[in-house]
Specification:
single chain, mainly beta, 4-stranded antiparallel beta sheet, globular
Length: 114
Amino acid sequence: QVQLVESGGGLVQPGGSLRLSCAASGFIFSINALDWYRQAPDKQRELIAVITSSGSANYADSVKGRFTISRDNAKNTVYLQMNSLKPEDTAVYYCHTFRGLDYWGLGTQVTVSS
C-alpha cells in the first residue's frame, strides 16, 4: 500500500528556511516521479516542484530560485528545501505521486510570519 508521510513544517519568520521531508513506502520509489504541492487557505492546491526518477527538477515560478526539491532513493525520501520564505508561502504542503492513481500524504503546515 502506497504511503506518503510529510514532516518538517512549522512556524518560521520571513526570510527563514525550512526543509520538508516526505517518506514513501509501498512502491518502488526510485522509478517514480514525486511532487510537492501546497494549498493556502481559500486557494486551490498548486503544484510547486517536481522531481523525476532521474533527478531532473522543475519548479513553479512562485518558488523558483528559493526552493529546491531533491530525493534520496536509498532512504525512499523526497525533500523540499525552502529558503527566503515569504508570508505568501504559508500553506499546507503535500507530497504526491502517481501510480495509476493519485497518492497524497496528509500534509504538513508551513506558516511564515513575524
